[in-house]
Amino acid sequence: MTSRLPAAVAALILLAGCSANPAKAPSSAPVAAPAAAAPAPAAPAGPGADDNLNAVAWSQTAIEHDLIYLQTYRDAEARLLAAMADPSWDALAKDDRVAPAKGLKPAVVLDIDETVLDNTPYQARLVKSGGEYNEADWAAWCNEQRARALPGVVEFTQFAAKHGIAVIYISNRAKDLDQATLANLRKEGLPVSGPEAFLGLGTFVEDCEQIGTEKGCRRQLISHKYRVLMQFGDQIGDFVTVLANNAEGREKAVTPYMAWVGTRWFVLPNPTYGAWEPALFNNDWSAPRDERRRQKIQSLRFD
Fold first, then answer.
1. For the domain that residue 212 is a member of, what is the CATH number?
2. pLDDT at 17
3. For the chain, what percent of residues have pLDDT higher than 70?
């Protein structure tokens, strides 16, 4: 015999069944639309990332940068008079010394850009604009005559001049920038005198074949009139001719003169530009910027 549930219990069971199996809404009932996706954030305005940003920022703001220059020029000044007193002392590489140094007037030879004058404002403009070096903009910057003297160089060159040592600037600034460059040097208090004070790119040297932008011919020109006590620069090419601008060629050029570094040759830092950079991408400036960057990354060590 089947027992019958009380009416109240039966009603509860019926309600529970309705709750567990809700009826579908009729097809005509409105359905809520899914929430719209949030809009993607706008791309930041201005140029994209620039490989030169940290280099320029360090050169302009790091106190360590200035201390390296002060340290270098002060050390050179402390050694200068002893070098002048030694008649056998000469800072020209053997290929550049084409006339005997004995009895010649003493001189110091300095590169200009990033050795004597600070051109990082020009580099900063390129970072801001996203552009790259070009001769027209560079010439315009030089003609502004606003480059500042780097720390220690004014004191060193004035000390040299005071002791009868010629101060000669060999630069790869074009020869037609000579007047603007000399004016900038004078404005910053750097000594300028004599016809060989500024030897820019394009200086004619008889019986010497110019190799690209190498400075060998101009150093040979100086060797006829001066015994060079010291050389200063931010690139190997400021001291010796580099025939092959790759890791092996650069090392080969400087190896015979390693003992001169810090005594006759004084090398200054320049992370913003220089021959070291194209050496990383086979000197191919025609390659797209991204490809050059890829090859630079490939050159990094990871252990």
1. 3.40.50.1000
2. 42
3. 84
Encoded tokens for 61 = 């703001």
Task: Give per-residue burial for 211-234: e unless 16+ CB within 10 Å, then b.
Answer: eeebbbbbbbbbbeebbbbbbbbb
Is there a contact between 200 and 258 (Cβ–Cβ < 8 Å)?
no
Give the number of other Cβ atoms within 10 Å of residue 107's Cβ: 23
Cβ contact 93:252 at 8 Å: no
DSSP secondary structure letters along 213-237: T--HHHHHHHHTTEEEEEEEESSGG
Q: Are 206 and 240 in contact (CB under 8 A)?
A: no
Number of domains, the chain: 2
CA 90 to chain centre: 29
Measured CA distances, 118 to 10, 101, 107 (Å) = 95, 32, 23
257 with 144, same domain: the answer is yes
Segment 118-159, tens digit of pLDDT:
999 999 999 999 999 999 999 999 999 999 999 999 999 999
Same domain for 151 and 298, yes or no, is no
CB 99 within 8 A of CB 224: yes
Percent of the chain with pLDDT over 90: 82
In terms of domains, do 169 and 284 share one?
no
Q: Is the pLDDT of residue 198 over 50?
A: yes
Does residue 85 share a domain with residue 212?
yes
H, E, C per residue of 102-170: CCCEEEEEECCECCCEECHHHHHHHHHHCCCCCHHHHHHHHHHCCCEECCCHHHHHHHHHHCCCEEEEE
Whether 90 contacts 98, CB under 8 Å: no
Model confidence pTM above 0.70: yes
The Cβ of residue 56 has, within 10 Å, a number of other Cβ atoms equal to 22
Tell me which residue range forms the domain holding 135.
Answer: 53-272
CA angle 224–263–168, rounded 5-degree value:
35
User: Are residues 151 and 282 both part of a single domain?
Assistant: no
